[in-house]
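can u do me a favor
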């Protein structure tokens, strides 16, 4: 009996070693690097609300909080801590007015006003995404928001105003886990690299010719570390995306794009993700540094209306 147990243990130990598929930049096998975070999050308890964990290392649905009310400071502090722990948190049945939406988001910091996506509500801090058969969405690529700013968003609060009957989910991917999944050689390669983030990658085509010089002066291309240290948690995370990064500073363009693509593919693993199915008046609050997100564009030609308030963060640092 003892001998059989030992053999089975040896087999399990061998199976825990990830394998690279020959000819492809893919790793298969158990994602053992998420196990400690999964178990740590599952042991958390909260004083002012309940939390149901969604992904192995990312996401929780919060219940017992009314975001339309003026919350006590201690509840806001708990929500902030939950955001840092789960990286993205979700709330159901929150019929917020635009003013209530802004008031809640402001509890976490100063709000930004987006220069390229206008607000169509009474609150200039709210960006309104209204997608239909006539207005297409381009959010179905993994990204952090507004990384072309010198001080990008530290977080965002998204409210589901009108939800299609099927489709339009938002997926979130853990950038701590994405970094931890890299081999040591890649980590050493990117340790001191900077990525160049440029608004023209995504928004340049929407700026009229006569305004381009002015907008470029307001928003010059900026460098941010490829690997950042989170200002609140002190943890390392990847900070590159295909939408806003033009290239790696000092690297050949083709080599740069190949590296950016390889790093961005770390978001693709379902083991790093959680997926949120929207309902009317659902709210997602994500840490824009610790996660990337992807809005599924599978509801055309149905209408999907969302409103977002973004909280200004510190400049990303190595």
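np, heres the sequence
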């Amino acid at each position: 009996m003892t001998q059989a147990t030992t053999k089975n243990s040896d087999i399990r130990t061998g199976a825990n070693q990830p394998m690279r598929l020959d000819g492809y930049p893919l790793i298969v096998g158990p994602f053992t690097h998420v196990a400690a975070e999964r178990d740590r999050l599952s042991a958390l308890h909260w004083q002012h609300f309940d939390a149901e964990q969604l992904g192995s290392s990312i996401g929780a649905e919060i219940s017992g909080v009314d975001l339309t009310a003026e919350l006590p400071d201690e509840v806001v502090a708990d929500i902030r801590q939950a955001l840092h722990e789960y990286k993205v948190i979700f709330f159901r049945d929150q019929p917020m007015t635009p003013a209530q939406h802004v008031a809640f988001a402001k509890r976490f910091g100063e709000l930004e006003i987006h220069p390229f996506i206008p607000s169509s509500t009474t609150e200039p801090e709210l960006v309104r995404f209204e997608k239909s058969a006539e207005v297409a969405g381009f959010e179905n690529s993994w990204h952090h928001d507004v990384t072309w700013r010198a001080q990008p968003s530290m977080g965002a609060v998204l409210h589901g105003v009108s939800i299609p009957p099927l489709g339009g989910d938002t997926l979130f991917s853990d950038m701590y886990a994405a970094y931890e999944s890299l081999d040591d050689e890649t980590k050493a390669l990117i340790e001191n690299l900077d990525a160049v983030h440029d608004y023209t990658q995504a928004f340049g085509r929407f700026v009229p010719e006569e305004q381009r010089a002015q907008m470029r002066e307001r928003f010059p291309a900026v460098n941010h570390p490829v690997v950042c240290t989170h200002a609140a948690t002190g943890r390392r995370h990847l900070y590159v995306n295909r939408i806003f990064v033009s290239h790696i500073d000092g690297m050949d363009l083709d080599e740069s794009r190949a590296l950016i693509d390889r790093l961005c593919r770390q978001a693709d693993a379902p083991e790093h993700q959680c997926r949120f199915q929207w309902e009317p008046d659902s709210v997602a609050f994500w840490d824009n540094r610790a996660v990337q997100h992807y809005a599924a564009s599978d509801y055309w030609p149905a209408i999907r209306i969302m409103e977002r308030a973004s909280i200004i963060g510190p400049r990303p640092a190595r």
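Residues 2-15 form the longest helix (14 residues). hope that helps!!
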